[in-house]
Amino acid sequence: MRSQTVANQLRQEISRGRYQPGEKLNEVQLAERLDVSRNTLREGFAELASQGLVTRIHHRGVFIAKPTVADVADFYTARAFIEPNALRTADVDVPRLSTIVAAAEQALEEGDLAKVADANQRFHRVIVAGVGSSMVEDMMDRILALMRLAFLQVLEAEPEFHAPFVAKNREVMNALERMNFNEAADILEDSLISTPTAVQKYLSH
């Protein structure tokens, strides 16, 4: 397994919420689990560090990033530019988005907040996938992994934080099904512009 593959796998695990913000990574255990040399693992860590997903502290080790208030503002600035434009101009997979929204609604009804959060992340990833650019998708994967780390901090104080986004995503979906892509983009843009303040409120405590 090459270092880039290691970095990609760890980024996916971060995005799925496997690690907590600020958690120290055990190099020996990770090398054994991923079946790679420690040198390859360290190269993977270097790649993740360049993406802002981990922090390397000399003589202390490698730690999962802990996004700050400023980081969240930056993430949402990028998302508010990328995602609405994807809805306006890209070939978005509307049936797949519909399936994700329906799954989120069912999860919310069942009280499964973890599935609600996962569905919300998939919803936004599918929107960006419509652009058809591996570079844009890679950037979005990095942003969503960092957002997961921010949300893990938020969810400690507000477990139902993602619940309101189910209705908002349904609004986007309804506009898409009417083939009103500009309306869908406007709804999403308003949501992405207004959300950072709510996230930052919890990070600042």
Q: Low-confidence parts, pLDDT < 50 over ≥5 residues?
A: none
Strand segment tally: 2
Strand order, sheet with most strands: 1-2
User: What is the CA-based Rg, rounded?
Assistant: 18 Å
How does the major sheet shape up? 2 strands, antiparallel
Keywords: DNA-binding, Transcription, Transcription regulation
Organism: Corynebacterium urealyticum (strain ATCC 43042 / DSM 7109)
GO molecular function: DNA binding; DNA-binding transcription factor activity
Pfam families: FCD, GntR
Kindly list the characteristics that best describe this protein:
WH_DNA-bd_sf; 2 domains; Arc Repressor Mutant, subunit A; mainly alpha; Four Helix Bundle (Hemerythrin (Met), subunit A); Putative transcriptional regulator (GntR family); GntR_C; two-stranded antiparallel sheet; TF_FadR/GntR_C; single chain; 205 residues; DNA-binding transcription factor activity
Quick structural overview:
The chain has 205 residues and is mainly α. 74% of the residues lie in helices and 4% in strands.
Question: What's the topology here?
Answer:
Blueprint (H helix, E strand, L loop, with lengths): L2 H13 L11 H8 L3 H13 L3 E4 L3 E4 L4 H21 L4 H17 L2 H17 L4 H24 L5 H15 L3 H23 L2
Antiparallel strand pairs: 1-2
Pfam families: FCD (PF07729), GntR (PF00392)
Organism: Corynebacterium urealyticum (strain ATCC 43042 / DSM 7109)
Protein name: Putative transcriptional regulator (GntR family)
